[in-house]
Amino acid sequence: MGADSSLRSRFEHGLDAPICLTWELTYACNMSCSHCLSASGRRDPRELTTAEARTFIDEVAAMRVFYINVGGGEPMIRRDFFELVGYAVDRGVGVKFSTNGTRIDAGAAKRLASMDYLDVQVSLDGADASTNDRLRGAGSYAAARRAMEHLADADFGEFKISVVVTRENVTQLDDFAAIAAHYGAQLRLTRLRPSGRGVDSWADLHPTREQNRSLYHWLIDHPRVLTGDSFFHLSPLGQPLDGLNLCGAGRVVCLVDPVGDVYACPFVIHERFRAGSIRDGGFGAVWRSSELFGSLREPGSAGACSACGSYDACRGGCMAAKFFTGLELDDPDPECVYGLGEAALAAHPVSIRPRSAPDHSRARVRSLSVPESLR
Amino acid sequence: MADDPRPFARTEHWALSDEVSMRDESFGALAYHHGTRRLVFVKSPLLVDVVRRLGDYDNVDDALGALVQPADRERYALALAALADSEILRGC
Ligand code: SF4
Ligand code: SF4
């Protein structure tokens, strides 16, 4: 999606309805990926009921939101998954949903293939089992590949393979592209943010500056690869990447979580970025009049980036990446291509880094970082 | 999905594709094609109006004649051609 600068300034003031609305259906997940952005695992007992979910879809349809991104947790774990997806699609709201693939057997693949206005993104974070399973858990590579086989066998068409780019898999981009080509699928790469359980793994997993530079050039060479506009912090490296090149949190992007809480974006599940709840008067009221969104739509200060000649290309980068690494929101992005984020990080004590909250990780996963003697 | 889009011609009947949802915004509108999954910006309120009513006229020139000032018609014709390219408009 390209946009000229006058349009971009419109987006900075917010739109009547989000372009990119993510709805995490459940915090329940049968996997425990170490970088899970929503710290999922256990189902939240306050999860929206089917009736509440339908009311939400009705409202979103009335606001003419064109499509919703459905995620979790693992959305297919909800027993009313197909019912809700069908309900949205029947009302003209397209659904793009992300899955770990474990629930896509031959039957589910056929069912998905029979629906219009539905996109499926299967997550894969390594081009081979060992790279992938280190992050996503034993057996997850085989499960994702099995899901892809089923989708291809069911003639689903162009499904998406969604990869979070890490220090370990950034060297495998061509291999991912080959896997996608093998299935007639589309490759989608997104940025690793220090959100959810990623708070603990980000420092070790985010691409190095060198790697980010080669990633940028690879993206420029592969314009058909989807990115969800997530790498705009790399745009100062040359010609801007395709997209709006600004942080859309609360302006064009937002998240509705499994219990109906509305956050500025899927990567900031934290009280500070909670705008309200769809349970208090509906989604539209929150989108239009939350105080938080109002302030995010004000022109931001360039802060420490104001001296940078590339500010127009990257606008200081990703708010979530800054917040969860303990930086100020007007600091440079922690992965600033000029290394200014690293310098800012070095000046901040690690102890003040905020945690994603709520955390629905299963205890076993959470305790991984606790020293043996404290258990 | 869609067959190859037919080339845009001002002497023919064109209309908003029934696969497209359009939503008014302060700058004009956002149009989303559910088949191609493409999001397109319609950059002025008058253009939005022309796009919505295009199908009511026998051909594009008639619509431009009725809805747009003479001096602006060429510009609007170009904008409509671009929208036809991205399959927001459908020839029929
Ligand atoms: S200093 Fe700020 S604006 Fe400049 S490249 Fe780094 S993050 Fe972007
Ligand atoms: S906070 Fe980061 S992930 Fe969220 S909308 Fe802004 S740039 Fe994107």
Question: Keywords, please?
Answer:
heterodimer; A: 375 residues; nine-stranded mixed β-sheet; 13% strand; globular; disordered C terminus; B: 92 residues; three-stranded antiparallel β-sheet; two-stranded antiparallel ribbon; 5 strands
Describe the structure in brief:
The complex is a heterodimer of chains A (375) and B (92). Helices cover 34% and strands 13% of the residues of chain A. Chain A has 15 helices and 9 strands.
List the helices and strands and how they pair.
The complex is a heterodimer of chains A (375) and B (92).
Chain A: H1 5-12, E1 20-26, H2 50-62, E2 67-72, H3 81-90, E3 94-99, H4 106-113, E4 118-123, H5 129-136, H6 140-153, E5 160-165, H7 173-183, E6 186-191, H8 198-205, H9 209-221, E7 253-256, E8 261-263, E9 274-277, H10 283-289, H11 291-296, H12 311-314, H13 319-324, H14 340-346, H15 363-366
Chain B: E1 14-16, E2 20-25, E3 28-33, E4 38-42, H1 45-53, H2 60-67, H3 73-85, E5 89-91
Antiparallel strand pairs in B: 1-5, 2-3, 3-4
Approximate strand percentage of chain A: 5-15%
Q: Classify the beta-strand content of chain B into a percent band.
A: 25-35%
Secondary-structure element order of chain A, as H and E? HEHEHEHEHHEHEHHEEEHHHHHH
Quaternary organisation of the protein chains: heterodimer
Rounded radius of gyration of chain A (Å): 20 Å
Tell me the number of helical segments of chain B per DSSP (H or I, 4 or more residues long): 3
Secondary-structure content class of chain B: alpha+beta
Integer tally of domains of chain B:
1
- Helix content bin of chain B: 25-40%
Average pLDDT of chain B works out at 91
* Sheet with most strands: strand arrangement of chain A: 6-5-4-3-2-1-7-8-9
Q: Give Rg of chain B in angstroms.
A: 12 Å
Query: Which descriptor suits the 3D outline of chain A?
Result: globular
Q: Which percent range fits the helix content of chain A?
A: 25-40%
**Helix count of chain A?**
15
What is bound: which ligands?
iron/sulfur cluster
* SSE sequence of chain B, one letter per element: EEEEHHHE
Number of strands of chain A: 9
Strand element count of chain B: 5
End-to-end Cα distance of chain B: 17 Å
